[in-house]
Specification:
Strand content: 15-25%
Bound molecules: tryptophan, zinc ion
Number of helices: 28
Structural class: alpha+beta
Largest sheet: 8 strands, mixed
Shape: globular
Number of strands: 32
């Protein structure tokens, strides 16, 4: 097939057909040898009894495999009896029930795509989701073919003492030449994407967990010996997650062993392979000296996420990859509820909504927008997106809001019971929810099938004479590539009314007396809601807890926002009021900057912040979040046209003004939140450190010698990575020569101390790649030439190239377009090695339509340069071509 046709081949949901053949049992034998690995597979196949006419032609997936032997029911097939091309092995005539055995040679040591079987720092490991198993052996590599796996691994005993696969070890022995083997059996049927193998010289932390029904489960986390001291937090998080899933969802673990293996080279965060999760080291290792608070929280969330997949993904899996959000959206909802219970619910919500509104809303507004249940894809790896994960989780959260916790739980129980061991669809999930609650979800399905972020505009009318308050709602949704005309969404809007002294009791027909909170369901294009007996003109608190992933427009004036910030009973909406206040003020500053007017900061922001800074009764974590000005990425998402420099200047101006006017308050906050206790990654300490370092970040907006010295002292004396990094970042971004001298010294010391800790070196790279001072591109080019940089390691690529292009807009978008040329150069080098990572790096360029003309043109030209490369991967081809369509 011609290159272009292969690149652009589309798979469509409506073309789904059940498989022609099933694989009841899969026996694998791996002979791991330097230079060549032999994989022998014996498959017990039979024609799918569900098909009225039995298929005779067998087609198996296979990519880059060297076929050595092929036999059907023990008889070797001659070359004329099969063909192998274009990623498919075709045997034209097979019986109804038969055994197929194949031997193939593969080359894990040369596999830089990190998909299939590959090596990471000498360790053999696999990544099969979504379609990597076909790079290991010939197979029906689709999630609706479930099989019972038995896997034997043979390797050199000295170099690879630990040999792991899914399930339980059932046999082991020695082999000639100093080799050994282990056989694993997984009693649970699973699709090939959940297969895993690991072979290496690994150390292991061992613990155990007793399930609610009294079974004992061995827990093992495998790492390189040097990392054994960084596993306490992952093990603790795992046990907490296991107990939580029993309490909250009634779900127990099902095998006798649960294993996690950490690898340094990994395309994503982690992978939920049955009984043998494989993790990016960045999502499992944690130690106060090397890991920030954010890192600790990430470990907790990802360990839980992968563990929760054992039910939402593994026991009940996806019929096809269009159902990806069935497992990912649901599992993100589950891990986010877990984190909310482990720390602060309001804070977790603020963090999730920040991610959704910056990354997912931007995706939804761009050329790669797709529904939570997409209807077509070229390369499925491109669909592991914030829409599938984060918007998918929001959709599950809305079901939870509409049903309430009890009916939601009944729906989950029904779903797991009815579909255990099966490969199902998003419709099956929603049907279980509908049945358990007696509710109709037909309109709700729009959330899965239509892309785009709905806009809800609200107006309020108070009638003092009649003592009524009316809210008028209007919804609309901009067009997206797959659909121009959207049907109205079913939008749950949790809301209340705030008066002078806080929440007012709500009097609406059908609502219990005394309630201060209501979930209003907006289903039409326009709809109204009337409250009775409203004694004063209220301020509506809308979309409490961010009850739906929409853009809400209400014409609040700044005094009303200040009142909500003070009085709203909903913690999320207090933060949201502060956020709206800051957004409005920043947008005004951006407009002034563009018009060449002098900038002046609205005193109401200063006063609102002062009040927050000095009220000891407030939740410190929430205060830290409110005092963090909306980021440049969010301001860009909100903008019609992204004026990179104006946004940056306006935000810097506001930060500096706040620092100047509130300097005594920030100084008090800084000293008041220093802590002498030894480090723990608990919510209370994390909140203190975030306030302390927020104060430092504000104070270092000023070029004041004693403040700069204070940052240096913090760097010099910190006993944890959160405080170390906060000090270094504030020095790096302060233009005063004194600060820059300290920053140089600090960078040198930091590297000298941590050069053998790969994850710390990544942070060292990232902080420099993010530095906003002029000359960013030159600094990043120098980082690429640093001996610790490695283009084959995705974490390094993300820390330097990804951090720069997605997290340093003023430098990446410099006017001469050199940032774009740089990115194209890196993407093209990377595309030949690791297409999944290359395609992801293109994301910032896909947003070209939102930039002013000159930059938009240069970004488009950069994408065109990618697209003309004849041997471009399917992954990058899909992203670049969609961005240009
Ligand atoms: N299923 C993984 C998760 O928990 C995602 C994942 C891990 C993945 N590695 C991958 C997806 C490689 C695609 C390619 O979210
Ligand atoms: Zn997942």
């Amino acid at each position: 097939m011609a290159m272009r046709d292969a690149q652009a081949r589309v798979t469509r949901l409506r073309d789904y057909r059940a498989p022609d053949f099933l694989i009841d049992r899969t026996e694998l034998h791996f002979d791991l040898r330097p230079g060549e690995t032999l994989v022998r597979a014996t498959l017990a196949l039979r024609a799918n009894p569900g098909h009225p006419v039995r298929a005779r032609e067998l087609r198996l997936h296979g990519e880059g495999l060297q076929l050595r032997e092929l036999a059907l029911d023990g008889r070797a097939l001659a070359p004329a009896e099969y063909s192998y091309s274009d990623g498919e092995l075709v045997i034209p005539d097979v019986p109804a029930v038969f055994e197929l055995s194949s031997t193939v040679a593969i080359h894990p040591e040369a596999n830089t795509s990190l998909e299939g079987l590959y090596q990471s720092r000498g360790l053999y490991c696999t990544q099969c989701e979504a379609e990597g198993f076909r790079k290991i052996t010939f197979y029906l590599d689709r999630p609706d073919v479930l099989s019972e796996f038995t896997t034997t691994i043979e390797a050199d005993q000295g170099a690879f003492p630990v040999l792991l696969s899914n399930g339980n070890p059932v046999a082991e022995g020695a082999a000639p030449g100093g080799r050994h083997w282990v056989t694993w059996h997984d009693p649970f049927q699973k699709p090939a994407y959940l297969f895993a193998l690991v072979a290496g010289d690994l150390a292991c932390m061992e613990d155990s967990f007793t399930t609610a029904s009294g079974r004992n489960v061995a827990l093992r986390i495998y790492v390189e010996p040097k990392d054994l001291d960084k596993l306490d937090h992952a093990m603790y998080s795992l046990k907490q997650a296991m107990a939580w899933d029993e309490r909250r969802f009634g779900l127990e673990y099902d095998l006798d062993i649960f294993m996690i293996v950490a690898v340094d080279d990994f395309n994503m965060g982690a992978m939920e392979n049955k009984g043998l999760n494989i993790f990016n080291t960045s999502c499992v290792l944690a130690h106060p000296e090397t890991t920030t608070d954010l890192g600790f929280q990430r470990v907790e969330a990802v360990v839980a996420h992968e563990y929760f997949h054992n039910w939402s993904g593994n026991r009940v899996t996806c019929r096809d990859w269009f159902q990806l959000s069935l497992k990912e959206g649901f599992t993100v909802f589950r891990d986010s509820e877990f984190s909310a219970d482990m720390g602060s619910r309001t804070i977790k919500r603020v963090e999730d909504v920040n991610l959704l509104r910056t990354a997912q809303f931007a995706e939804d507004a761009g050329p790669t927008a797709h529904p939570v249940q997409p209807d077509a894809y070229q390369e499925i790896s491109n669909f592991y997106t914030v829409t599938i994960y984060e918007k998918g989780a929001e959709v599950v959260r809305m079901i939870h809001t509409l049903l309430g916790p009890d009916a939601f739980r009944r729906g989950c129980d029904l779903y797991f019971e009815r579909h255990d061991g099966a490969a199902v669809t998003i419709e099956d999930f929603v049907a279980a929810m509908a049945e358990a609650s007696g509710r109709d979800f037909s309109q709700f399905m729009g959330w899965y099938r239509q892309a785009g972020t709905p806009r809800v505009a609200v107006r309020g009318h108070y009638d003092a004479g009649a003592q009524t308050y009316r809210l008028d709602f209007t919804q609309s949704c901009p067009p997206t590539p797959e659909c121009a005309d959207k049907a109205p969404f079913q939008i749950p809007i949790r809301l209340g009314l705030v008066g002078r002294n806080g929440d007012l009791p709500l009097h609406v027909s059908g609502l219990a007396e005394g309630a201060t909170d209501i979930v209003f369901e907006l289903t039409e294009s326009t709809q109204s809601l009337v409250f009775e007996r409203v004694g004063e003109a209220p301020i509506p608190s809308l979309l409490r807890g961010f009850s739906a992933p929409v853009k809400l427009a209400f014409d609040y004036d700044r005094d009303e926002l200040v009142q909500l910030l003070r009085r709203d009973s909903d913690g999320f909406n207090r933060w949201e009021a502060g956020n709206r206040l800051a957004v409005g003020i920043l947008q005004e500053l951006i407009a002034d900057d563009l018009a060449g007017r002098p900038l002046a900061l609205d005193a109401r922001l200063v006063e609102a912040y002062r009040e927050l800074l000095t009220d000891p009764a407030l939740d410190p974590a929430l205060v830290a979040h409110i005092l963090t000005l909306p980021g440049e990425a969010y301001l860009s998402e909100l903008a019609e046209i992204i004026e990179v420099e104006a946004i940056h200047r306006a935000r810097q101006f506001a930060r500096r003004e706040l620092a100047q006017r509130l300097r005594p308050e920030f100084e008090a906050l800084y000293t008041g939140n220093r802590s002498a206790e030894s480090y723990r990654a608990n919510a209370e300490q994390i909140a203190r450190r975030s306030l302390h370092n927020l104060a430092l970040a504000y104070l270092l907006q000023l070029e004041v010698p004693e403040l700069i010295d204070r940052a240096w002292q913090q760097f010099d004396q910190a006993d944890n990575m959160t405080d170390t990094n906060a000090a270094l970042v504030s020095l790096l971004n302060n233009p005063a020569p004194q600060a820059q001298d300290h920053a140089r010294e600090a960078l040198g010391r930091y590297y000298a101390r941590w050069q053998s800790e790969s994850l710390v070196v990544n942070q060292w790279f990232q902080m420099q790649a993010w530095c906003v001072l002029p000359g960013g591109l030159e600094r990043v080019r120098a980082l690429l030439a640093h001996p610790a940089f490695d283009l084959r390691n995705p974490n390094k690529v993300r820390s330097v190239i990804g951090a720069f292009s997605a997290g340093n807009p003023v430098n990446f978008h410099r006017a001469d377009g050199a940032g774009y040329a740089f990115l194209v150069e890196q993407v093209l080098t990377l595309d030949a090695m690791n297409p999944q990572i290359a395609a992801r790096l293109l994301t910032p360029l896909t947003r070209w339509r939102k930039y002013p003309q000159a930059r938009a043109g240069a970004m488009r030209a950069a994408l065109e340069q990618v697209l003309v490369v004849p041997e471009l991967s399917k992954d990058s081809f899909e992203i670049a071509s969609k961005a240009l369509r």
